[in-house]
């Protein structure tokens, strides 16, 4: 009966935790917690950088959570180490979310070019086309176009808004898109055809990149598995014979070999990441 009662207790605990979350969802502590992590969500949703007070709140929250988790797992030493890593992890999380947003903006350049071309073909000027394209386009690219349209609605010059859009996007595809619009305004030409050709070129490049990633997916996965194998072997050896790793560290020769192995593993990780970044 013991396993059965344990399973029932676990199910009831999950149900109780769910009810507790529902009860505190509208409370002030929950709202404060949601406000503390909002900069991380906003960085991935809008690409906006967190302010200094927001970064401090995220860092304090990460420090507290990691310190408590370290205390529960292994006591004060791990709590101290995990707490010290909190600010670094918070900063890394904010940067990672902004990188995700930047990649989404870059990937949406083709859709933005095609939406702008359709709006221009329907008779809108460039300022109106940006607003129409932003309303009809989803994702990060649509959010950037809507932000540009809001600035235009407030009376900002077209050139300044497009330059701001280009700086926020930080992608060659958007550089070419903005350059084409500004060049057509000064020299004339078929802007609709230019934007559609640009969209087709970007889509062709995206297809080629996907094919390259698919062709190298197995090799990259194999490389990552090989990199994880030594750590997995060490964990299994420690579980099978507690104190195995500590015994190796006590001997100077084995400790030196383990340090050399860690250095080689780090070099391998960096190499694999660089190769994967080159492919992507």
Question: Would you kindly provide a written description of the structure presented here, covering whatever features stand out?
Answer:
- By secondary structure, the chain is mainly α.
- It is 89% helix and 0% strand.
- The protein has helices at 2-24, 28-45, 52-74, 76-107, 109-121, 126-136, 139-153, 158-169, 172-187, 191-240, 244-250, 252-279.
- The chain is elongated.
Runs in which pLDDT lies below 50 for 5 or more consecutive residues are none
Distance between the termini: 54 Å
Question: How does the helix and strand content classify structurally?
Answer: mainly alpha
> How many β-strand runs?
0
Alpha carbon gyration radius: 26 Å
Largest sheet: none
Along the chain, the helix and strand elements come as: HHHHHHHHHHHH
- Mass-distribution shape: elongated
Helix content: over 70%
Number of helices in the DSSP assignment: 12
- Mean pLDDT, to the nearest integer, reads 80
Give the strand content: under 5%
